[in-house]
Amino acid sequence: xxxxxxxxxxxxxxxxxxxxxxxxxxxxxxxxxxxxxxxxxxxxxxxxxxxxxxxxxxxxxxxxxxxxxxxxxxxxxxxxxxxxxxxxxxxxxxxxxxxxxxxxxxxxxxxxxxxxxxxxxxxxxxxxxxxxxxxxxxxxxxxxxxxxxxxxxxxxxxxxxxxxxxxxxx
Length: 170
Hints:
Number of domains: 1
Number of strands: 0
Shape: globular
C-alpha cells in the first residue's frame, strides 16, 4: 500500500499508463501487434507511440529466436533503428539511440517490477530530448563508451583510457 502511494506521487499518470501498456504488449501475442510500415514520422505515428514501437521491436527480436524467423527479426531490427534515429532536435542521434534502446530493454526485462519499469520509462522520456549532458550521464551510468556521430572521426582520447601508456598500440 505504501509503495503504491509513493509510486503515485513519484510518477505521473502518463508514465503509469505507458508502463501498463508495455506490460500488455508483452503479454499479447506478436500476431496481434500490427506491423505497419512507414516512415517513423509518417502515418505509423498516428497509431503508436515511438516508445512503444521501440519496445515492440525489442520484444520481437527477443522472442523470434528461431532460425526460420530471421526475416521477422531483421524487420524488427530495421524498425528499431528507424524509430531510434528519428528525432528532429537531437544533437547526438547515435548515442541517444543507443541509450534509448538500452533503457527500453531494461523496461521490458523489469515487467515483474513496476517501479523499476516506470523509472526506465521516465528515463526514456528524459533521454528522448537528446541533451548532450543527459546522454553523457546515461552513457556513464550504463557503462557505455560515447561513440562518434555519423561522419566524425573517433577521437584519440576515447582510446587512451583503454591502452597502457607505456606500451602504445600493438
